[in-house]
């Protein structure tokens, strides 16, 4: 970006959010509902205190062993007749997936931040494919041509009245702003897509290296359709999602739902180990029974290895993407969370810096108030404020300094005070 483009770009984004009453209404309704549900779940799960500490240790160990775990996962997936790929960056991942889908196909997707990170939908649509998001929030966002604003609830900023307008346009008839009715519209519209899709694309919440098992956690049941109904299942996920064993994966699953949505356990947890198969006739294995015939796992680096090498930023890779810290962030409530990027809130600044480039977050890091709430509420006690501070230092060294700050800095260095006044000695102690 040239000169002050990096500032103007975010200024517009911030202004849009601050002027948008409608978005804040949606957000504040969601924050209240989430907070009540989470507090109630945590008060009834005291044992979670110990489990979340265990999960932190599992993640620490997994990131240290990342390279080894990637190799083990690749071998395990091949052992169960899956195909596996390691993409170094977004371009390579898109190329791999585009080769697998081809063009002119009907593709259904379940929620995947990693696919947003690489701009997968746009790439697939450019090739002439029809791509349908099937998570309700993602579906709403896709129809409205907006960006998601939360990792668990992508359309959290869209109140029911706006959803009703969007669905009315889609169906060409009036849809009332009644939430159960809105959910019914998505169910009816997407059902036929699930059944006729050529390819299903999902993300993963965890991968167990030893067994090559993909864990997908969800409440709506759409990811089950996506990963089961089409003949080809492609799973795209970051290499930080790998843990050594199934039991490590189960530990993480105990922590995620209460912190993500305030429930003891999500409605569905799919565990997928290879494509569907049967050996019911003469014990001869045939791949492709009722589920997909092909399973392709695409593991993505795209900055994660660089993150893992840094003692401070490595912590961002421990994130299990519960989204809890966003609801607690005072800045998120006013400015939304993505700041025009694909990851959200304070932790999202770090992720976006590594996956999309530091210039993308240069203006947004100053929005962080360092209140520290994100660290307090994080089940893994991830020190996001420390990482944001470090990122800010790096950016300043690279010349990303707000003009007002640059002026103050110059005045301190040249005149000994931040006010631009000449009487240097007045300020000496
Ligand atoms: S940083 Fe912590 S609270 Fe925030 S999304 Fe990640 S795991 Fe959840």
Description of the structure:
The chain is α/β, with parallel strands linked by helices. Helices cover 50% and strands 12% of the residues. It has 19 helices and 12 strands. Strands 1-12-7-4-2-3 form a 6-stranded parallel sheet, sandwiched between helices. It is globular. Residues 319-325, 347, 378-380, 382, 384 line the site of iron/sulfur cluster.
Summarize the structure.
With 429 residues, the chain is of the alpha/beta class. It has 19 helices and 12 strands. The protein is 50% helix and 12% strand.
SSE diagram, text form:
Elements: H1 5-19, H2 21-43, H3 48-64, H4 66-79, E1 83-87, H5 90-101, E2 106-109, H6 113-118, H7 120-126, E3 130-133, H8 136-144, H9 160-171, H10 179-196, E4 199-202, E5 206-208, E6 213-218, H11 222-228, E7 232-238, E8 242-243, H12 246-261, E9 268-272, E10 277-278, E11 286-287, E12 294-300, H13 304-309, H14 324-328, H15 330-335, H16 345-355, H17 373-377, H18 384-397, H19 403-415
Helix pairs in contact: 2-12, 3-12, 9-10, 16-18
This protein binds iron/sulfur cluster.
The site of iron/sulfur cluster has 13 residues, from helix 14.
């Amino acid at each position: 970006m040239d000169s002050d483009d990096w500032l103007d770009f975010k200024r517009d984004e911030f202004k849009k959010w601050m002027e948008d009453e409608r978005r804040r209404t949606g957000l504040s309704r969601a924050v209240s509902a989430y907070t009540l549900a989470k507090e109630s779940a945590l008060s009834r799960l005291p044992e979670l205190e110990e489990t979340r500490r265990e999960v932190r240790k599992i993640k620490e160990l997994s990131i240290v062993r990342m390279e080894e775990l990637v190799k083990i996962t690749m071998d395990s997936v091949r052992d169960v007749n899956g195909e596996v790929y390691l993409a170094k960056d977004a371009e390579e991942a898109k190329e791999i997936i585009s080769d697998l889908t081809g063009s002119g196909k009907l593709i259904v997707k379940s929620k995947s931040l990693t696919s947003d990170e690489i701009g997968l939908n746009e790439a697939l649509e450019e090739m002439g494919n029809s791509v349908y998001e099937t998570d309700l929030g993602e579906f709403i966002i896709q129809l409205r041509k907006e960006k998601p604003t939360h990792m668990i609830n992508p359309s959290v900023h869209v109140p029911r009245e706006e959803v009703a307008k969007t669905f009315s346009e889609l169906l060409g008839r009036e849809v009332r702003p009644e939430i159960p009715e809105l959910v019914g519209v998505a169910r009816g519209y997407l059902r036929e897509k699930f059944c006729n899709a050529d390819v299903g694309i999902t993300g993963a919440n965890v991968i167990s290296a030893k067994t090559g098992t993909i864990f997908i956690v969800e409440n709506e049941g759409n990811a089950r359709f996506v990963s089961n109904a089409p003949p080809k299942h492609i799973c795209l996920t970051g290499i930080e999602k790998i843990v050594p064993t199934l039991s490590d994966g189960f530990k993480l699953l105990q922590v995620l739902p209460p912190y993500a949505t305030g429930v003891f356990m999500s409605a569905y947890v799919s565990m997928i180990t290879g494509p569907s198969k049967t050996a019911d006739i003469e014990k001869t294995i045939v791949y492709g029974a009722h589920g997909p015939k092909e399973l392709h796992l695409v593991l993505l680096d795209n900055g994660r290895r660089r993150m893992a090498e840094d003692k401070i930023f490595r912590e961002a890779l421990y994130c299990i993407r519960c989204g809890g810290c966003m609801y607690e962030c005072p800045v998120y409530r006013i400015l939304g969370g993505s700041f025009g990027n694909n990851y959200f809130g304070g932790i999202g600044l770090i992720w976006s810096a590594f996956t999309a480039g530091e210039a993308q977050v240069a203006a947004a890091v100053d929005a962080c108030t360092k209140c520290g709430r994100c660290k307090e509420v994080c089940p893994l006690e991830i020190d996001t404020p420390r990482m944001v501070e470090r990122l800010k230092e790096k950016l300043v060294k690279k010349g990303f300094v707000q003009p007002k700050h640059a002026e103050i800095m110059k005045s301190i260095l040249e005149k000994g005070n931040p006010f631009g006044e000449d009487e240097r000695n007045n300020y000496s102690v």
